[in-house]
Amino acid sequence: MPSLTKWRIELISLNNEGCRFYLDHYKPFRLAALEQDPDAFGSTYDREIRFTDHDWLSRINHPLVKTFVAVRLRDRKVLSATSLIGPTSTPGTASNPFQASSEMGDASDHDRHHDRGEASFVSFQVTGVYTLPEARRQGLAKTLAETAIGEAVAYAEQHGKRLELSLTVYTSNTSAISFYESCGFVVSPEGPRESFNPHKKASADEICMHYRKSP
Ligand SMILES: CC(C)(COP(=O)(O)OP(=O)(O)OC[C@H]1O[C@@H](n2cnc3c(N)ncnc32)[C@H](O)[C@@H]1OP(=O)(O)O)[C@@H](O)C(=O)NCCC(=O)NCCS
Question: What does pTM read for this prediction?
Answer without folding.
Answer: 0.90
